[in-house]
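Key result, reporting period 2: structure in, sequence out.
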């Protein structure tokens, strides 16, 4: 009986000091169909100055699951959904001394997360929050003094509660992988974007602001926050990924202490994508950030950066959906070769390792990337890989898909590549001569025939003796092959005659 009575008593509320910063590894609430996350707006009346705020307002996202357990449809985060949500005074209407306090109250107000799946729900409150967010953006943009710690803490808290949400609808990883094509399907636009966009803009301006002290802010924009920010790159909404790309780049530039961790975290996303899921919406954006980072690498390149090229960038050519991010990937790879020409051999052999066999459009992309890499390749590195490289190019020249053969022949339009080939024509011409000869005589596409004749003429003009030697050797091999074919056909014909004679007996 005593236990039953005690069980009905209200539990002691958590102390205001026992809170965790949202975004530093805590699990934040997600929008649901029946409730919204709220914060105790009555606390705002007790605010006197920014320094007292941290000790008076509890984290709206703290222990959400426990506080919401057993609550009815009209209750969220310990407060009723019908609680008043009224606009606070404008910054223009209060004295300068009260603006810092009002700023914190508005931040607390924006910690409420509304349900956008129903456009008819909380229309007035949503508009109040949108206008409040716009005011906060203006306030941060026009700030003229360093933001104190309570402000930094509450900005990161508000940003975390709004951005770090459960995906809605369910992520595509839960669907049958073969049932959709990321390139064909329309992206899912987040219905909450009218608020999310302003939150992203606010956060971007906060990071960029000269009044944001990096040494202070790094306590709240920590590794846990960065990991959750990176998780958002899998959003299907391209508008969100574009903001995330800019914000992560600014964080990388402002917080030098986080740079190694950011690179490592991006590496881990790539590894999971390459070797496990092959499903991620933000690979192109992450590569775009890395392209800028690689461009700023100091010389000589660290071993860590070279390992990143070998273990992450080159294997990114493997997934079937490489077309979605190939332009950014090619730029990153080429940047490495331009910074350290000795990496050309590693890159070219890596491309050959993942060279597509049955995907013609992917082959065309690989040939385009190969041209960019070769343009930055020096003769010494070219000689190391030219034999396997031109064996693959010879196969491309023989392709029945005219775009593959045509793209391979376009390599000779590049003066640098043509110069490398001419310097090593004694090795290269014997490898590709059969393909050129067969194209000029028998390829079904007229453009491929014409281009093959042009390349053939380049070799003939450069070294007539070598060309004639290769032509004679080719004719001898063709005659030998014809002889073998004739003998084989004669044997089969003789076997057929023997079989017929035995069946007639």
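The corresponding designed sequence is given below.
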């Amino acid at each position: 009986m005593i236990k039953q009575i005690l069980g009905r008593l209200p539990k002691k509320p958590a102390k205001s000091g026992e809170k965790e910063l949202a975004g530093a590894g805590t699990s934040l609430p997600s929008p649901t169909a029946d409730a919204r996350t709220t914060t105790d707006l009555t606390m705002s009346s007790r605010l006197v100055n920014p320094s007292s705020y941290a000790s008076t307002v509890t984290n709206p996202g703290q222990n959400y699951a426990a506080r919401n357990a057993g609550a009815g449809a009209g209750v969220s985060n310990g407060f009723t959904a019908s609680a008043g949500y009224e606009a606070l005074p404008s910054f223009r209407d209060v004295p300068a001394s009260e603006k810092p306090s009002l700023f914190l109250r508005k931040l607390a107000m924006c910690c409420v997360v509304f349900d956008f799946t129903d456009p008819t729900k909380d229309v007035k409150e949503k508009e109040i929050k949108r206008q409040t967010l716009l005011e906060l953006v203006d306030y941060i943009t026009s700030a003229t003094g360093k933001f104190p710690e309570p402000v930094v803490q509450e900005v990161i808290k508000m940003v975390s509660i709004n951005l770090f949400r459960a995906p809605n609808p369910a992520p595509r990883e839960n669907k049958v992988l073969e049932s959709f094509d990321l390139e064909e399907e329309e992206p899912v636009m987040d219905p909450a974007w009218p608020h999310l966009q302003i939150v992203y803009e606010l956060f971007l301006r906060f990071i960029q602001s000269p009044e944001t002290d990096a040494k202070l802010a790094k306590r709240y924009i920590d590794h846990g926050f960065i990991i959750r920010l990176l998780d958002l790159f899998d959003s299907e909404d391209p508008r969100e990924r574009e903001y995330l790309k800019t914000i992560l780049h600014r964080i990388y530039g402002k917080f030098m202490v986080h740079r190694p961790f950011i690179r490592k975290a991006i590496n881990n996303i790539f590894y999971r994508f390459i070797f496990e899921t092959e499903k991620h919406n933000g690979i192109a954006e992450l590569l775009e950030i890395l392209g800028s980072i690689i461009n700023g690498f100091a010389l000589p390149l660290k071993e860590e950066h070279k390992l990143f090229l070998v273990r992450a960038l080159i294997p990114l050519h493997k997934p079937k959906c490489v077309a979605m991010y190939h332009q950014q990937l090619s730029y990153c790879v080429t940047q490495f070769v331009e910074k350290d020409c000795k990496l050309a051999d590693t890159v070219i052999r890596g491309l050959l390792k993942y060279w597509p066999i049955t995907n013609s459009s992917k082959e065309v992309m690989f040939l385009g990337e190969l041209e960019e890499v070769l343009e930055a390749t020096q003769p010494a590195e070219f000689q190391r890989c030219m034999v396997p490289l031109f064996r693959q190019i010879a196969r491309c020249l023989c392709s029945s898909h005219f775009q593959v053969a045509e793209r391979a022949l376009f390599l000779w339009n590049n003066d640098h590549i043509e110069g490398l080939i001419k310097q090593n024509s004694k090795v290269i011409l014997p490898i590709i001569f059969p393909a050129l000869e067969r194209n000029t005589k028998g390829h079904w596409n007229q453009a491929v025939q014409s281009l093959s004749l042009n390349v053939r003429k380049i070799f003939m003009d450069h070294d007539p003796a070598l060309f004639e030697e290769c032509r004679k050797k080719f004719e001898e091999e063709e005659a030998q092959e014809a002889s073998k074919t004739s003998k084989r056909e004669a044997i089969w014909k003789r076997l057929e005659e023997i079989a017929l004679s035995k069946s007639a007996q």
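The beta strands are 75-76, 79-80. The mean pLDDT is 81. This case is discussed further under Risks and Mitigation.
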